[in-house]
Design goal:
It is a single chain. By secondary structure, the protein is an all-alpha fold. Helices cover 80% and strands 0% of the residues. It has 8 helices and no strands. The chain has helices at 3-15, 21-41, 46-63, 74-97, 105-138, 141-151, 156-163, 167-193. The protein starts with a helix and ends with a helix.
Amino acid sequence: MTDQWITRKTLLLRTLNPDDESAWEEFVDYYGRFIYHIILKMGISSSTSDDVAQQIVIKLWKKINTYDSSKGSFRPWLSTVIRNSVNEHYRKENRRKENAFFEGEENQISVENDIDQMIQNEWENHLTEEAIKHVKEVFSGKAVEAFLMGLDGFSNADIAEKLDIALPSVKVLKARVKSCFISEMRKLTRNMERR
């Protein structure tokens, strides 16, 4: 197991120590993009998104010691903090505008379900991006390009032509990268969503 995975597994434990600045820097580096994407998809304007993201990180810093892994994995807990923070932002904003964000309780449940699905989709995208980042560190450019082109729907023949490599090489490269990608996704899922 690499040092990266040892660090990832212990990152949440390290963040419990408010004096461990490096743990928080690593935490923000890893989860910051995820948080930012979620709040933009939840309709936070780009002009206030940095402030809202910063408020969420501060809230996480204050509440991380309340996370209980026996009650569930970290990602749903993180999602709840993000959702509640964004809802709080809208309530404050709407008080200023004297509008209601939610028209009724039934609408709130529907919106929360939509938000939960959006957060799940964004989390899967985040894990995929992290796995692809790892694959790019392991494999050369053409191997990764062949794999990504395959994901984009290009045929093996088109990939061979565009990358100027033999057709059998395309199949081998894609298979190797795919195997590494799947393995990395499993590691990420196991280490980032475990209870």
